[in-house]
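Long-time lurker, first post. I've been practising inverse folding by hand and with some scripts of my own, and I keep getting stuck on stretches where the structure tokens seem ambiguous. Below is the full token string for one chain I'm working on. Before anyone asks, I'm not after the true native sequence, just a reasonable design that respects the backbone. If someone could post their per-position residues I'd love to compare against what I wrote down in my notebook.
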């Protein structure tokens, strides 16, 4: 298998769906296995990424080069770009370049009396978006998600611009067919 076939496989809709699924697996793994609870913006990033999975899978089901497949791949790219925008906003909140929402950074606790203060404190989220709870090489999970989402959006846009030229990761055929010799 040559380098061009490997590169063509990166642009396949199934790879895009697998990337989105992997991002969810990593996020849920850190949450449920690593004990890192997500903040409000982390949840927003998940919601922004979620449509990429069915869009990429629907694109995979369509004939290569078809207008429907191209449209679905463009929508997949837009989904990744929306996720990147939310991740970029989250990075800005973490770096204190701007403030997040009240749900994200805590409410203003200066108004009202003791009872109002007590109810506001009880309603304040435990996980704050403006504090980095995990980082590697000085980059937070939101920063890695920003980079990941931009790369995935680029792959989706390249795939959309390559009508009929994406090889199936399962078979290597340009149109995703399984040849008689490769069939089980």
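-- Answer (accepted) --
I ran through it position by position. Result:
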């Amino acid at each position: 298998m040559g380098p061009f076939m490997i590169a063509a496989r990166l642009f396949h809709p199934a790879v895009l769906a697998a990337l989105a699924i992997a991002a969810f697996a990593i996020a849920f793994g850190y949450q449920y296995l690593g004990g890192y609870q997500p903040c409000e913006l982390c949840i927003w990033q998940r919601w922004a990424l979620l449509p990429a999975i069915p869009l990429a899978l629907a694109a995979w089901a369509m004939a290569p080069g078809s207008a429907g497949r191209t449209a679905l791949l463009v929508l997949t790219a837009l989904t990744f770009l929306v996720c990147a925008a939310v991740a970029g906003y989250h990075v800005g909140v973490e770096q204190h370049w701007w403030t997040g929402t009240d749900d994200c950074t805590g409410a203003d606790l200066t108004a009202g009396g003791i009872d109002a203060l007590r109810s506001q404190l009880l309603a304040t989220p435990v996980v704050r978006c403006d504090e980095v709870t995990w980082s590697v090489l000085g980059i937070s999970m939101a920063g890695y998600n920003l980079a990941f989402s931009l790369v995935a959006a680029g792959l989706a846009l390249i795939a959309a611009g390559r009508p009929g030229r994406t090889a199936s990761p399962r078979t290597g055929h340009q149109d995703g067919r399984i040849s008689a010799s490769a069939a089980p």
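A couple of notes from the structure itself: Strands lie at 135-136, 139-140. The longest helix spans residues 67-94. Happy to go over any region you disagree with.
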